From TrEMBL:
Family: Belongs to the UPF0053 family. PaeA subfamily.
Lineage: Bacteria, Pseudomonadati, Pseudomonadota, Betaproteobacteria, Burkholderiales
SUPFAM superfamilies on file: CBS-domain pair, FAD-binding/transporter-associated domain-like
Protein name stated in the entry: Polyamine export protein
Membrane-crossing segments per the record: 92-122
Gene3D superfamilies: 3.30.465.10, CBS-domain
Annotated organism of origin: Comamonas endophytica
Amino acid sequence: MSVSQSLLTIAALIALSAFFSMAEISLAASRRLRLRQLADEGDGRAEPVMRMQEQPGNYFTVVQIGQNAIAILGGIVGEGAFSPYFTRAFELWFTASTAATLGFLSSFFIITSLFIVFADLIPKRLSMAESEAVALRVVGPMQACMTLFKPIVWLYSRGTDALFRLLKLPTQRDERITSDDILAMTEASARAGMLAQREQQMIANVFGLDSRTVASAMTQRDRIAYFLRDDPDEVVRMRIAEEPFSTYPVCDGDIDHVIGYVDAKDLFQRALTNQPISLRDDTLIHKALIVPDRLTLTEVLDQFRQVHEDFAIIVNEYSLVVGVVTLNDVMSTVMGDMVAFDDEEQIVRRDANSWLIDGVTPVEDVLRALSLDALPHDDEYETLGGFLMVMLRRVPRRTDSVNWGGYKFEVLDVDSYRIDQVMVSRLEADAIGVQKAEG
């Protein structure tokens, strides 16, 4: 075989090996969701690719037969094509045996390098980048190869299946998609610019509802505007003017004895028509939904759906009221900073290195704002104020501070033992990692 014929043969073998490399990687890397979308759009090649993914045994058997046979042929052709020329060149400086060895090694190196670059690296990188497009193009020829080599494929496949059964190894890919998979895909889309960062965060917030308790979204006990059943008309009118809300709990004696709630629109209707407002009128009082404070936000949404309500009273294990939550509170958790239901933001960024944060801000929101993974003892509290109490081991006072994770958390204002405002500042490089509590 002449040099030109050998080169053409090697080029053809490299092309065939590249084809099998692309077929192998593209099938493994193809996303089933994308293939299903292509099938729904009318591309008939997508269905065979998905069937191959479900039962890839015969497919990969053909790939391995082709790649190994081509590698052997490439070595034989390359050695015969190049070794004599390299050997004669080396004989000018070395003995015949040494020249023959060097000629073989040189031929081996060149042929191996050509196959690595053009039959392996380039096609595999292309297949990873355009996996679905490549898989659709190669599926037809691969089906033809599977038919052509069916007897050999059957032999190898049955032997491999027997080994898999003997070793009790899985033979099918798990196609179940978890919430972690979806979050990973949305994060990748956001990094690639295909999905807006806020949209990605909203999707993450939806999946986070299952891990966040209702306490992270509720209005705290000391901020609840409520009525006592004995409140006279003028007190009711004054309160709805000073604290306008859509819903007010109605209590008997104190806040821990809730008998129901009153809708603001019913009160407004009576106020506008100059009718007297009496909370002893049972037609005004609606039955309140009572839920425990350990429920997750997902469970609260289920409760809202079951009873067709959008307002709930939150109680602790001692049946004491700790807060109230509305459907808007839950939705604001999902939407994040895309919408704002409150007049005042809980987290205000002052500059590049400092934030002003409300003490009742949920820990999850604080972590996201500060780009932290976690805070210590995070199973003992729900809010930033709770974090400071746990770290200081007492009720914080004004100017108390805690250093953690490269940040300084300083209490600016305390109102009746409740932390109102916390200044969070990024520490200098030499202070990062120092944990300190100052009284």
